[in-house]
Here is the input.
Amino acid sequence: MIQVTCLGGAGSVTGSTYLIEDGLGRKILIDCGLFQGGTQVEARNWQDWGFDPEQVYTLFLTHAHIDHSGRIPKLVKDGFRGKIITSPPTAELCQIMLLDSAHVQEMDAEWQTRKNRRKGKRQILPLYITEDAAQSLKYFSPVERDKMITVEPGIKARLRNAGHILGSSILELWAEDEGGEIKIVFSGDLGKQNQLIVKDPHEIFAGDYLFIESTYGNRTHRSFEDSKSEFLEAIQYAHSHGEKVLIPAFALERTQEILYLLGEFSRNGILPDIPIYLDSPLAIKATQIFRKNKKYYDEEAMAIVDQGFDPFGMPNLQFTPATEESIAINERPGSAIIIAGNGMCTAGRIKHHLKHNLWRPGASIVIVGFQAQGTTGRKIVDGEKSVKIFREDIAVKARVFTIGGFSAHADQKDLLEWVSHFAESRPHVFVVHGEPTASEALANSIHERFGMEVHIPRWKETLMLKAREVARGVKREEVAAADIKEIMLSKVIDLQYELDRLKQVLQKRGGDIEIGEDEVERLTAIQGELREILPD
Ligand SMILES: [Zn+2]
Here is the structure.
């Protein structure tokens, strides 16, 4: 029996964490995300893990967003010493995301402590500090997608493109159990069809169990083309008034999509000739990582590169990492486009830009991302006449453009289309990562359309998974169609692993018998030979 406990990303969209335990008691984690959105939810970040981090040898990370990766530094701080398996771009993005997250934790704790001191209350410690985040980066073990890997004997896995953000992955996991092999698929966050920059999500056909996200399980996105025209209109509106365009944007993916579109407008000669500022140190670093990782682009982005352009560049673009440069932007009169974090206007440089521009008729505020309840961004979207920024009431006189078509998540139509490929293997479906109404809508649609058994797990619910007859036929076909070379190589890895384990046991016993390096070398040689002999 395989057990899966939903320790986050169940009944909500943040804190994604799933613990898998097999019959031998081996533990694997899928994602280790931060809970976000209000004191009550965020208190979960401090709770006991519900398992011993030291006993987890493998953590699969689907992508670099903080709601999937943000508790990794705490996991390592609390004893995790295993491998964090993820795609190479995710590992690279986590280097900047986790350090930034640690900085945010430190700042928050400092602010809370100052507030508490005035009330005569205690000091607040951060969830983790920069040093913890830096430590945790040592455990990252990047693996290219589409490669079959053996995690431990009897447990194999493969990452597939999820098309959500650069490096984002779906996870396929095979685990042997008394009743046979069980295949579990974790969708991670799934991208929509034809999303900018990244390729469309990989289609998967076989599975006994499927965990699928449902962020937009009850919604259909507005047309992308309409959103693009609306975006251009927002720029033209502020430009015609000699005012600024403010774009509060999330540093990862959304900012790069905005730059990508501005680049397209620029190449098509429809972008007004005004300065464009990327005013976020984190987004600047993320953009550099996007620029480096061209091999993960989709065809359209590659075509731009092949024509000699930078998909995230245009003549008027300036990066402003330094604080003085950021301040100088508002001292310059005239029109400009300013992209700054954070995405919900609750912190960061965007607050300064809002203070300078929100009250100016003729300016544009372009909202391109999800705005949670209670945030300044949400208040602006909801049409409040004034909002509080740095304890000052600022009138909202700028025109607000809420553009819904730039989401990096699949909508209900995309999700159902992706699930339709499983029609033959009919996995048992668990709908996760969504607000209850969104999850329910998706669960009902999947059940009605495909007749699959569907369940919406609660937070901390443990699910019991057994080998299933239905999926077996499809799985057999999948195995037959799989690369023989891959299977052989994975067997050698199994052997290598066993040998290594045996070596450790013998060493512990202190006996003379030793398995020398030569045995391991011999296996490595066989592996090399297999690679050459077997056809590609
Ligand atoms: Zn995400």
